[in-house]
Amino acid sequence: MKRVVGILAVFLLLSYLSHGYQFYGYPYIQKIKNFTLINQDGKEVSFSDFRGKYLLVFFGYTFCPDVCPTSMLRIKETLDYLGSYKKYVHVLFISVDPERDTPELLKRFISFYDPSGKYITGLTGKPEEIKKVAKMFKAYYEKVPIKDNPEVGYLVDHTAFIYLIDKKGILRIIFRPANDDPKRIAQDIIQVIKIFGVE
Amino acid sequence: MGKIFTVLLVIVGFVYAKPEIVIEDPWVRAVPPTAKNTALFMVIKNVGDDPDTLIGVKTDISKMVSIHKTVNQNGVMKMVHVDKLTIPPNSKVELKPGGFHIMIMGLKRGLKIGENVKFTLIFEKSGRIILEAPVKMK
Questions:
Q1: Weakly modelled stretches of chain B, pLDDT under 50
Q2: Into how many domains does chain A fold?
Q3: Residue B92 falls within a domain, yes or no?
Q4: Residue A65 C-alpha, separation from nearest chain B C-alpha, in angstroms
Q5: Which of A25, A88, A138, B57 has the most CB atoms in a 10 Å sphere around its CB?
């Protein structure tokens, strides 16, 4: 009951602050604790390094055949719809397959969706670190072996939500895979930026 | 006499009912050059009056091809292997992102946007259908 009231409060607060704007994604409030992982250049980066930016966070892996390429394309299209707001937004692609996703692989993967190299950061790290981060986002993933195929070895089943985090590191909106219209995701992002402002 | 005629009709119908498979809008998803996996999508139409079943797919560009379905189970996106895909008569099955797709695993080379990739679809009744699918970023 407490939880329901909490969720209702989140809805009412956001809707009040946005003058009745109907959010496409699922409004949420959760402070994300700091974490440190390895970026596509092999350097340690912390979540707090991105303070001041609005973040889109996605958990995936570079071997992913269907779901991640779809989501990454939608994210790319979303960035394009942001127009002048694009500069306030950054994307974190966090690998749920850290054993195979080296920084080099991540770099080539993200540059496919962001040739400028400015808007997307790929993150990998020790499996136990990734596990902790995923848990905080309530993201779930699990290796699924493929029979008779040593080349591919395994796939990873995983949740495919896109999380919108505000400039102070607070999770504000969750987009489910069914909510993948880039235009409407961009509208939500702009709305959230308007509410919480820019630095 | 009428009875015999009906029986004959049924037999004739049985012999002559056949599937007719038409492939529309095939495309292969462009993936980053490092990616080892991608997928083929298309609409498989059966304009005939008998069902047919896709039982296999072949291509030279990868080590393995199989029919898969992406399933959203309580928010977790799972890949489910499908042995075969039946196309009922006078209907179609859409292979699209987030649903049925032909999974291409273990790419032997990178694919360029715009290039055409050759596939052979094997149907139970219609046999082999060869198609060329362009690589698209969509």
A1: none
A2: 1
A3: yes
A4: 5
A5: A25
